[in-house]
Amino acid sequence: MIGTLVHNRTVATIFLSYRRSDSAQACRVYDWLGRRFGFSSVFMDVAAIPVAVSFSEHISEAIAKSRLLIVMIGKGWEDRIGEPDDPVRSEVEAAIENEITILPMLIGNTPMPDADKLPESIATIAARNAPAVGESLDFNAHMDALAPKIASILAGMDAQSVVARNPRIIDMACRSIVDFLRDQSAEPGCPVEFPAYLPLDPYWRVAAPSDFYRMESNTVSLLLHRIQRFDDEVELHVLFSFWFDDAYTQHSLAGWLVALFDQVPVLDIRDEVIRDEVYKVRIRRSDEDARQVWKIVTDEMLRLSLTYVATILTEDRVQATAE
To answer: Which domain holds residue 264?
Structure first.
């Protein structure tokens, strides 16, 4: 079951609905979506419902606040759908009642159920375009093809994103990350002590692809290579590259950066112009292959690089996520 959820009182974005007989495939989809969109954005009952709470009430609240419900349809999905107390039927009915966008997902070669074989309350889902997701080697290829559609559905749901409220926020976020690293590398009280044995202070900078052909030595660069917009959040996919001649310095700086973001995953976005709202940026490691990003950006010799995702969000959203 996936959907906008109150994930430990955090509002998620995608609600996953599935039968227990399809749990294995549902777990694969949950894991894939979590790594792509962030696990806090995906709701799956076994992963998200706290201990000692009402199952039905929690599910109802999650669906009512969701943006997208993905209905996983496998063999035997129709067997109980006609029963009034069928939980899967109740989830789909709740999504329809709350006007939540529904995306049916066919497991393997399962056909889409005929409308006349479904309860009238949910028969409309039979008319929806339902992608098929394989159960073996074609799983990742199918999910890769589906991801842009999911992202576009989510992106079009809320015109009041942080970017719509402040078009400068993307540039401000990138520069704030670089300023944070620069400040922490020179701050004695840094949560992760900067390697004092390094021969020189690095130069921290925001870079464009054209800068890679003339990058100064002793630089750590941040390149923004992809942007994903969701309802009230924006994800910046960034590449940190270490422009040093010796492996020891590169490795030491990379280790420090990883340790620092593990210790301080949420940063302030600093700008003297903003006065009416506080913005934050949440940093997490990405599963994108840095080498593949590098090949897209430049034909320069590969430098040691790390991929991260920086999510821009309001202070209220940060507090809701932490509760």
So the answer is: 162-322
